Structures are given as C-alpha cells and as structure tokens.
Queue: 2 jobs
Job 1
Amino acid sequence: MRYLLTVICFFGLVTASQGAWTDISEKDFLKTPWAERPRVEQSACIDCHASELIKADYQKIPGEWRQSWHYQNRVACQDCHGGDPKDAAKSMTPESGFIGVPKPKQVPEFCGKCHIGIKDNYLESGHGKALMTTGRGPNCVLCHGSHNIQKASIDIISPKLCGVCHKYDRAKDMKASLLLTEQKISDIGKSLETLKAGLISTQDEDKVLFQTQAEFRTLFHTVDVKLVQEKTGEFSKRLNAINDKVLKGFGELKFRQDFAVFIMLIFIGLGITIFLLGRKSK
Amino acid sequence: MIQRIRGWLEIRIGLDELIRSQLTEYRVPKNINLFYTLGIVAFVAFLVQSLTGVLLLFYYIPDDKDAFQSVQLIMNHVPYGWLFRLMHVVGSNLMVAVVFLHMISVFFLGSYKKPRELTWVVGALMLLTTMGFCLSGYLLPWSQLSFWATTVVTNIPTAFPFFGEVVCKILRGSEQVSGATLNRFFALHVALLPALLIALFALHVFLVRRIGISAPPFGREEDEDWKEFRHEDHPDGLPFYPHFVSKEAFMVVLYFIIMFAIIALAPALFLPPDTRIPADPFTTPEHIRPEWYFLAPYEMLKLIPNRFMGIAAQLILVTVFILWPFIDSSEKANILKKPRLLATFLVTLVIWIGLTIWGAY
C-alpha cells in the first residue's frame, strides 16, 4: 500500500513538473477547428470595420454579415470583395482584386462569381436589361440585401420590394405561379429531414431536390411569368418523382418501427414467462 | 434421440456429474440479488456485438473512399441491414452501461475485497477494453463525427513530451486522420480487441468460479481472514439452476427489451446528424462532442487549465480505479459500515454524473 501511494505521488509530481513546461494554453485543442478552411472570425477586414476609426455605418457590416446565410455557409468578405484579408496593408489594393462598393452595373458580376446560372437568367431578364442599358434597373442587392443576406424565399416577392420600381400586379402573378411549386419543394424538404432523423438515407433525393430547387429559382430570375408557368409542369413532374420516393421511405420507416416493436413485445412476453417460472420454482 | 446424445456425452465427459456440480448442486448465496447478474448480461451484450459485427462485416468496406457508402448500403439496401447496424450501435452503448453498472455494483457490494482483487483488476481492464472497442468502432462509419472525434482523441497523446507525437503518429498512421487510421482502427476493432477481451473474459470467469461467488455483505458477520486459498461455498444457499439462472435470463431479456425499445422509439438516439454526413477533412462540425460515456473525462479536460495536467490527472484516476482493491485494502466488505468510503463513493458518482450532464450541454 505504502509503495503504491509512493508510485502515485511520484507520478503526480512528474506529471506536474512536465506540465509546467508543456504549453499552458494547449487546452484550446478541444475547441480549435482543425479544418483548413475554418469559419472566419478574425481578418484584416473585420478588425478594421470593428474599429472606431471607421464610419459608423461601416462598423455595422461585420455584425450584419454574422447574421447572414453567407456567414452560415462560410462565405467571407474576400469571397465577394476580393482583397487580402491576412494583410491589412494589401487588403484593399486593386492588385489584390479588391472592390469595395461595386457600381450597380458591376453587381451581377460581383454576385455571379458564385451564382452563375442565376446571373445568366437575370441578365436576360427585363430587370437585367434595364440595369445594363440604363444603369438604373434593379440589381441583386436591391431584393436580397448586401451583408445581412438571408436564405432566399418566395416572400422576397412582396408589394413593399417590387413596389419600389413598379406596380405589384405582374409580380403577384409570378408569385402565384411560383407558390405551389415552392410549397411542394419546402414540404418535400421537411419530409426528407424527417426521414433522415429516422435514419433513412435520402442522399439521392437531396441531390435531385437541391438541383430542382436551384433550377427553379434560377428560372424565376428571368421574371418571365409565361415561361415560369410553362416550366412549372416539368418541375412538378420531377418533384412528384421525389415525393414517390419519400412516400416509400415513410413506408420503410413505419415497417422498421413496427418490426422493432414486434421483437420488443416478444421479449416482453419472454420476460413475463421467465419471471412467472422463477416465482413458481421458488 | 436426445437420450442417445446425452448417453454419448455422459460416457465421454460425465455430463450428469457436470450438470450436478456446476448447475443444480452449485449453490449461490440466499440473498444474492439482480446486480449479480450484470456480468452475464455484459457477456451476452458482447455476444450480440460479435454476431451483429460479423454480419456488418459482410458488407462494410474498411476504406476511406467506400466506408461511408458501405454503411449507407447496409442501412438502406441490405435486407435487415438497418436492424443489425442499430443493434450494433445501440448494443455498444448498452454494453458500456451494463459494464459500468457491473463495476459500480461490485464496488458497492465490496466484492473486490480479498481474495477477489485480481477479479476486479481483470474486470477493470475489460471495461477499458470495452471503451477501446467503442473508440475504434466510432471511426469506422467514416462520418463527420467519427472523423473529427477521432482527430480530437488521437491528438490527446501529443500533450505528453518526448513520446506524445510518436504515439499520435502510430495511432493515425499518418500526420492527419486518414485511410491509414481507418485501417488501424479497423484491425484493432475486429481482431486485436476481441482477442484481448475474450482472453480477459476467460480469466475473469476462471477467477469467479475458482474463488466462488461472493455473498452480499449486508446483514451478515464479516468473513474470517483469508490465510490460505479456499473456494467460497454457500452450503445453505440456493441452487445455481434454476434460481440464479432464471434471474440471469430475466435480466438478459430486459437488456433486449431496452435495446429494441430504443431501436423502435428513438433509433437516432446514438446517431446524431453529424453521423449521417460523410467525413470531410476540410469542414469542422460546429460542436464536437464525444459519446455519453466519455463526456465526464471530456468535461474534466476542459475544466483543467493545462492539457497535459488534465490528461495526466485522468491517467492517475484510471490507475487508481484499476488498483483500487490494493488501495482500499481493509477487509471489511460492508460499505455501510465505512462512512468515509461510502461518502467517497457517492461523491465520486455524483461528480461523474454531474460532469456527464455538464458535458452534454
């Protein structure tokens, strides 16, 4: 016993002394992301925009961005504005590709770096043509905002937003055409989440739904009601095909649950039998 | 036919005498309780893991490019693959819970006291081996959670100077968690650890049968000092069969009821969303949190300001746990007559549960 305590004490002392020269702050290893592309929390852009030296309006930008869909998807300042976020001196030089506030005509290209399909459809639309010819048509940020960009939804089409430039009538027709399909996409999305929670794999359906949704929303940017109405049937067909698979998934989920309950009931019966036999044998 | 087989065996192995000496005339203490059955429940849990594990091996591909997809195949396309995988996943958690409960009850009942110190040490090593199973099995589905949890765990040895980096590299087989790590963990999970656990189990059963089943210490006089080896008999006890066997069978059935209740009502209880996303070395999940049985050590690591100290403290605690019968070497087995030990036991249990709950939120 004494020897054992000596060994433990010795080990404890060695531990303590070694610990002293091991990096004290290494505890962070539990929360440090190891990914090569972690979420940006610190950069030259954020540091500067957080300082008092800058205009009050510009100070709000990092806060707005942190509330955005872009932030949630790890899209950082330099992904849109260019520049070098690691070097304050070079962060805003033209050589580093920095664009601070793009001119209205530059906005489609600015956002279209990632949203390629949408950019193409937008440029073919009345909105896009008006912007490119007069420089005064509605651009991406007018509807979607700039820094606090939220996940796109059909609610963007509203009298408040559309009414800034024109009457709401045509936009209303467009929204009505989109509504059913959008609702269907949303319902299928929720069903897929339920299936996933029940451990039914929906990888293939997720991909098809994402693609369908992306194509459908791209199409909307043509702001061509007739075209949207024509194509709705095609999208409906694709969504129905996914829905059929979703229904099959729910059938499988129900079967799994029933089967597990069935086996559980067999064991409950077995347990009761053993309990009664045990009492009898006493 | 049965009589003929019985007769054949009787001539060769003395079946009747074996049944008499090991089952019907083998006596267990009168006041033996359900906690004494947890050992056999743990053994059945291991059998379930082995059986379902072998079935999963038919389709699982231990390769970083195919592992995740092969698990998806098992869950969605292999007939009843979902059932065997869920039995394996839920079973692993239940097995840890059963082994925990077994150790706690052995501690509370003072069954680690002389002459059963070795039985405790082997049991403690079996618990650690079970944890090793969980750890190595966690990586195999090659999901986001498995990948990042393994990254954290294999990073732990680097807290130690001189050999930490080497141990980390040996575990990973490369600088980062990769296909090489998966191969190593797979080998551990399906070859090395099962062999180790079976060997420890054989030794454990040998010790239990050789020394004899201990009686609950409550309401009886303390045993006389053990000066020489003897098998602990209970001549006034009840027969092992059917009395104790029916208790064991009941607890085994209860184990299966709990398992299938979880599979039916909460199949994703041990499979959070990050287990359904393939491993992506470039995207760290928001919250990396270990399984419930590692939450207390995990929380302790976060609380102790220095990583090395935190890990070393845990190693000391594990050493104390394994060698406990030699630390508490008094021969009194009744914990109720030892208020300081009882208080230590209860405080440790409460701290453990508290840290686990804290770690979960």
Job 2
Amino acid sequence: MTTEIVPIKTGEDVVRVRQKVRVRATEAGLSLVDQTKLITAASELARNTLDYGKGGEARIETLAAPRKGVRIAFCDKGPGIPDVQLALKDGYTSGNGLGHGLGGARRLVDDFDIKTVVGEGTTVTIARWKR
Amino acid sequence: MDNIPILKIGSALLVTIQVDMHDQLATRLQEDLTTMIVKSHARGVLIDISALEIVDSFIGRMLANIASLSRLLDADTVVVGMRPEVAITLVELGLGLPGVKTALNAERGLTMIGGVSGGTEDDEDDDD
C-alpha cells in the first residue's frame, strides 16, 4: 500500500490532511461514524504538529491486514513532550486549545502510539480499523 | 476574498459554514460577525454547521468564542444542524461545547432567538 506524505506547514495543510484522510477512510470502508472519528483525531493531531511541533508531516497509509484500516503518522522535529502522561490527560494544554487534543484524539482511534524525544521531535501514530 | 457570508433574517444573523475552516477564515468570521451584530442591532446569531463533516477542538473553540463575543454584544448564539456523527465524536472527544446553545435546525434556532419578526419589543416588565 502506498504511503502518502502530506506536509503540515500552514492551517490550510491541516484541511488538506483531513481531506486525504477522508478519501482513505472511505476507500477502507469505514462507517460514517468511524470516518468522522478518524478525521477528527487526524485534525487534532495535525494541528498539534503545526502549533507545537513547529510543522512537520503526515504519513497516511491504507492497511489491508488483518483488516482494512487507515494508519496515519504525524511527525515533527519540534521540542518534544517532556511529560507524555501529563500531556495525555484531559484538560492539559500548553497552547491555546481547549486541552483535548492528545487525550481526546486517543479516544477516537483504535491504535494510538506516541514517540517523543525532548529536543528532537514527536511522532504520533494512529489507526482505525474497519469493523 | 475568502469569507463566509452573513445573512440578516429579521433580528437575527445567519451564518452557514460550508467550507473547511482554517485559521484566517475563523478569525475573519469572528471579526465580520461582531461588526455585523453592532451594525445591524441583531439580537441573535444562528450558526448553521449542517455542512460540516467534522468539528474538532479548533472549530469548537471558534464556536465558543463567537458565543462569548455575541453575548458581550447583547446577542444570543445558537448552533444549528449538527450531524449525528459529529455529535458522537464531539462527546467522545470530551468537547461538550459548554456555553454554546444548540438547536436541531434553523427553524428551531430562530424560535430560540426570538423569531424572525424581531423588533417587536414584548412588554416583559418583571413585576416584583
């Protein structure tokens, strides 16, 4: 399966990520609610990449096994997250959001993985599978 | 050139969000709306989001901001037309949109604001 790389440098890029994820989610046969959850999670994370990671990229891929699904990795070379557990808590924010970005996004997907190194960057990977 | 049209219906303003919102558009809308509220003496703002496929915390924040701004300018805000899948996602996201009034459709929203007739100042003397 081809991996599509979408740069995230501006607010318009966040919109572009949403549109690409929608196409993939539809192709993978996700239900409307599942599509909506995945796209919303992608939107939150793309914005994090932009706002906190100082920009980066989204890597979107369609999965075929064990079931159909969509996986997206958000990568940045920003400051990293010093305390991941704290950042995943509801209500936490270091920016001007409502503080639901990371923890909220995790609840909207089936798989959630975060790798972060302070001073080097953060990669958040999410996946949602067809039911 | 990129902006969201604001329509006046009676004493209310109607904003239909049909495009994918990004930062500049959201800021522009807030500015245009506040100007319009003051200029048109609107008592309410109806925001139709039935075309929106998702509402993330960015859009949620924008809606909450508009509601606060309108309140300061003596106008009520009602968000109408939220899709069911959007509502499900918002709740799971933990974004209940506190402080933002909602109605199922524009008609009910207008009723909440005070109808299209507007202008007619109901004598609501609180006799105490």
